Amino acid sequence: MFDFITEEHRMIQEAAREFAQKSIAPIAAEHDETGKFPLETVRQMGELGFMGIEVPEEYGGVGMDTLAYVLALEEICKVDASHGTIMSVNNSLFCHGLLKFGTEEQKQKYLVPVASGKAIGAYSLTEPMSGSDAGTMKSRAVLNEAGTHYIINGRKSWVTSAPYADYIVLFTMTQPEKKHHGVTAFIIETDKPGFSRGKTEPKLGIRASATSEIIFDNYECPVENRLGEEGQGFKIAMTVLDAGRIGIAAQALGIAEAALEASIKYAQEREAFGKKIGQFQMIQQKLADMKCRVEASRLLIYQAALAKMESAKTGRRYSLEASMAKLFASETANYCAKEAIQIHGGMGYSKEMPLERYYRDAKITEIYEGTSEIQRMVIARQLTGLR
Ligand code: COS
């Protein structure tokens, strides 16, 4: 039906499906319970090429396109959204930024190991007092007198994968008086003095993905590790988030589909009042509404992926398409996870089935990489041209 999806796309989708079912499904519940980071399976995902799908082979990736990325990510998230979070941050928020804005040296040194999955990448924008209002950060980078290093101080929060990340793309203020135009991006090596990790967040969902604070105490960042120009950081952060939001939409779609598939099966098997529950109109309505939203999400995600691919040629911003996909798919994931529990009744509420995990995991997709409120704001601003 979708002739833009090629044989190659189907192959990576199938490979991701097989890996997720064989290697992630057996450990997903346990990692959710313990909150243990799944380092072994993440490394295996790297070996399979899932950690740098859109990165050209010369930089350690597999050189495929955004459609390949969303198809693979959806399959991983259908089984476990935590693995998907780690995969999506590595691919979109780290690799995409390095690929688009990095120098050749930066790509060789940092993109190659992260895209090949030998190292883990992260992205740090949020601060304790700066979340949605990303232009108001308090952390600072000051160039030393010799002009060789930036001295970075401050605290960043909610950094996905930070406890295990080797490299982090950091956004911080170099010229606070310039507000958005005073933000600069840097590539941080996490094994250097002056860098430390704060508390790991205890989370409602995506519990196997590790999220922590990071702290900079006179961290010396060489000038050659600046990503882009001074003052370009906010645009880099937003451009990268546009890519990231397509990934989160694919993650949400995976969760929604898992919830729908479980519900269809249950509706076919479970009996009440002498009938299969799928014969009752109130269950039929839920299944029908879930299915429509899942398929509409898929179309918005394909549209956003195609817009991003086109943007590589034309430079046109795809913020509208990315935010529409993320908004709709994340609300669909929450809707489907909630309805799936209702269809399953007590079984849905039990930890014996993964429905309650889908429900907890779905919630974050409406929050991270821009809340639903922020997505609506981006969409409306794109429509009206007003700020
Ligand atoms: N791509 C390129 N440039 C962008 C952009 C994008 N997607 N979005 C904004 N910009 C540019 C604007 O064009 C503007 O540039 P000029 O000043 O040169 O005209 C600049 O960035 C500032 O934009 P704007 O005035 O719209 O900034 P706001 O402070 O109003 O913030 C929102 C815009 C709210 C959309 C932004 O702060 C945001 O996305 N916040 C959510 C952050 C987020 O997702 N956090 C989660 C982090 S990951 S867990």
Description:
The protein has 387 residues and is an alpha+beta fold. The chain has 3 domains: 7-119, Acyl-CoA dehydrogenase/oxidase, N-terminal domain (Butyryl-Coa Dehydrogenase, subunit A, domain 1, Orthogonal Bundle); 122-231, Butyryl-CoA Dehydrogenase, subunit A, domain 2 (Beta Barrel); 234-384, Butyryl-CoA Dehydrogenase, subunit A, domain 3. It is built from 11 helices and 10 strands. Helix 4 runs antiparallel to helix 5 and helix 6 (233-269) packs parallel to helix 8. The longest helix has 37 residues, at 233-269. The radius of gyration is 21 Å and the shape is globular. The two termini are 39 Å apart. The model has no long low-confidence stretch (mean pLDDT 98). Bound molecules: coenzyme a persulfide (COS). Coenzyme a persulfide binds at residues 125-126, 132, 134-135, 158, 180, 234-235, 238-239, 241-242, 317, 319, 368-370, 374, 377-378, 387.
CATH fold annotation of the largest domain: Butyryl-CoA Dehydrogenase, subunit A, domain 3
In the CATH classification, which architecture of the largest domain applies?
Up-down Bundle
Helix content: 40-55%
- Helix/strand-derived category reads alpha+beta
Give unreliable regions as ranges: none
Instruction: Quote the average pLDDT.
Output: 98
Series of H and E elements: HHHHHEEEEEEEEHEEHHHHH
Strand content: 5-15%
Order of strands, main sheet, comes to 1-4-5-8
Instruction: Describe the main β-sheet briefly.
Output: 4 strands, mixed
Number of domains: 3
Radius of gyration: 21 Å
